[in-house]
Amino acid sequence: MRRMTARPANAHQARLLKLLRDGGPNSRAQLGDQVDLSRSKLAVEVDRLLETGLVVADGLAASRGGRRSHNVRLNPHLRFLGVDIGATSVDVAVTNAELEILGHINQPMDVREGPVAVFEQVLSMAAKLRASGLAEGFDGAGIGVPGPVRFPEGVPVAPPIMPGWDGFPVREALSQDLGCPVMVDNDVNLMALGEQHAGVARTVADFLCVKIGTGIGCGIVVGGQVYRGTTGSAGDIGHIQAVPDGRPCACGNRGCLEAHFSGAALARDAVEAAQQGRSAELAARLETHGALTAADVAAAAAAGDATCLDLIREGGSRTGQVIAGLVSFFNPGLVVIGGGVTGLGHTLLAAIRTQVYRQSLPLATGNLPIVLGELGPTAGVIGAARLISDHLFSPA
Amino acid sequence: MRRMTARPANAHQARLLKLLRDGGPNSRAQLGDQVDLSRSKLAVEVDRLLETGLVVADGLAASRGGRRSHNVRLNPHLRFLGVDIGATSVDVAVTNAELEILGHINQPMDVREGPVAVFEQVLSMAAKLRASGLAEGFDGAGIGVPGPVRFPEGVPVAPPIMPGWDGFPVREALSQDLGCPVMVDNDVNLMALGEQHAGVARTVADFLCVKIGTGIGCGIVVGGQVYRGTTGSAGDIGHIQAVPDGRPCACGNRGCLEAHFSGAALARDAVEAAQQGRSAELAARLETHGALTAADVAAAAAAGDATCLDLIREGGSRTGQVIAGLVSFFNPGLVVIGGGVTGLGHTLLAAIRTQVYRQSLPLATGNLPIVLGELGPTAGVIGAARLISDHLFSPA
DNA sequence: GCCTCTTTGTCCTGGGAGTGGAGAAAGTTG
DNA sequence: CAACTTTCTCCACTCCCAGGACAAAGAGGC
């Protein structure tokens, strides 16, 4: 099938496409209620969208008390690819134009193997999804990488945990390989976009999305838009000092948040606790698996292991301390906690909340929900699809 | 004189007004180079602005190689009032429509005397400026207060250092008294606006403006727009924890930045040093004045007093630590340091820079200037004038 | 089944806004 | 003084679009 290459010709069409994306099939009349256009003008724009093929007719709507309206919807053959490259695994998903996930694969993968190896795997995962009949091709792809990105060009810049990716033309390369438009962003920003589109942050204009995985990052949304900073490194909170003269960090400083609490740090702490005999549960798991991860700590904590609960509480407290500072500074309307470590659940959340509500001023915390992300591992890929759809559904 | 009450009728006119405000008198042809309008359309819009009286003819421009063009400029009789209410003093200034300061008064005043007493003084200062022939009336006023503001309504909310101001309808009241439109904002935001309009931040889209005065606050500019947060308390960094288990703070916590370094904290430290005999210079000054302020510390430091230099270095270091966190998070293109304590000058700046450059990652600090504000005490009043002009030069 | 009312969709016309050309006015340069 | 530039005004033509009229399609009451 020939892929759609059309783009909206003007802001009105872009608006309509986004309404159809976010609200699903809609009648012309309903669309008319949401945009400020005369019936004639609306009809013209919808007709033009039908001509481009981006939008198709979709039968009759239910009556609202009179003549039934003709529904329109985004072309059901449109497919977006959402890719979320983490430090230790890759998520690839296919969505339709309404950003519903049709298929989703996760595979372990070390990002340090470099862009060539990673993309080979991503492409084979995409091919597998295509082969399973979910898509005949892709109309666009969004991709998230675990490091700062020069956004307009779609190129990673000086990513600490991705040696070999610095300056690699991700957007360009993937666009060639997939034969469709591609947008690249930081994985944390995509998680924020995902939670904004389909998760807990749907109605909030200004919020923070803290992702605790192998590292720690923070997506910043200002006025509904992702804020990326001057060089694309905004939200890089893993290296904020959480403990004066604390543990040495890979970045060369001491006491960075990431050195004290993150997937990697937690695993280290768990191994130490097991070896020192502070936790029978962890020792047993270390014995069986040969290694420990945050998931082991979560399981042990769920089983009531005191040492693990302490580890989580302490980490949550450190994280909460940093978030408290950010809340004072940024005064968000919502804080979302996500990433691999969310398996630690409410113990973690409680520790974070305690610290934030204690340290920040009432005016900032008064009506501030601090919640876990709703979407889990799909937040990233949904955000990726959202990123490319925002791009494609904007006037060229 | 009857005041101007006209507002631009559309975005084009608003654009033109702002060009004339920021660029001074301009010919039609020059304006045409800067906006994307046909000659006819431009002429129509300029004519309409002339009709409203907001804009007046201003003679002939220099030739650019052909027929000389007719200049237009903002009505030279337009007057804005800029008011900057600090914790311990008030600045009031008159500007023309191009936001040039025509007259500026500063008077000591304790904000804790409450809104009624403060406004009485502000009005008398405004009257004095008017009486000196600088203005026959005001077309708009901007006012900054040292605490969070619910911006749309222009009402302070839960301001810690301004008991008695909570919920006081500042905008409404002042608008009545002055008989002109009024906008209210946090003083730090206005400083940021001022530095953006006429100071060091003219060309930067995303920057932070840290004001160290009696308290500590931070103006946040995102994409050229001041960011105020969900409840108007964004930038309230004075109560971020800088020292774990540090000094008790008025807010109830310990170790807040403001408790360790601010005009007030510095004065306290200075008195203590004088009494403990650690600084002969300060002791002498305490003897003569009966009290010490940040200015005394600055003077003593300039004279080479080691204790004072240490105080400044330590405070700068604490501040730098907090700013380092903000830089990692926000990735600004510029950090401006301003407020009363800037008298401490380069000793302070050096301490801050050292800490930020050491603690934040290279990608964020690589090209990050950290500089003192250019405008000093006029930043606030210029920002105030800018605030109201932005409001009045927008379509109604 | 029929009549009336409501909603939706299409067509058409009148008005208004804006583009861009023609040409006059005002200056510069050699 | 002639040729070229720039600015400004005027005007005709185009394009867009709002909103009314009307047709189509359905709901509901009797």
Automatic annotation (TrEMBL), chains A, B:
<dbReference type="InterPro" id="IPR036388">
    <property type="entry name" value="WH-like_DNA-bd_sf"/>
</dbReference>
<dbReference type="InterPro" id="IPR036390">
    <property type="entry name" value="WH_DNA-bd_sf"/>
</dbReference>
<dbReference type="InterPro" id="IPR000600">
    <property type="entry name" value="ROK"/>
</dbReference>
<dbReference type="Pfam" id="PF00480">
    <property type="entry name" value="ROK"/>
</dbReference>
<protein>
    <submittedName>
        <fullName>ROK family transcriptional regulator</fullName>
    </submittedName>
</protein>
<comment type="similarity">
    <text>Belongs to the ROK (NagC/XylR) family.</text>
</comment>
<dbReference type="InterPro" id="IPR049874">
    <property type="entry name" value="ROK_cs"/>
</dbReference>
<dbReference type="InterPro" id="IPR043129">
    <property type="entry name" value="ATPase_NBD"/>
</dbReference>
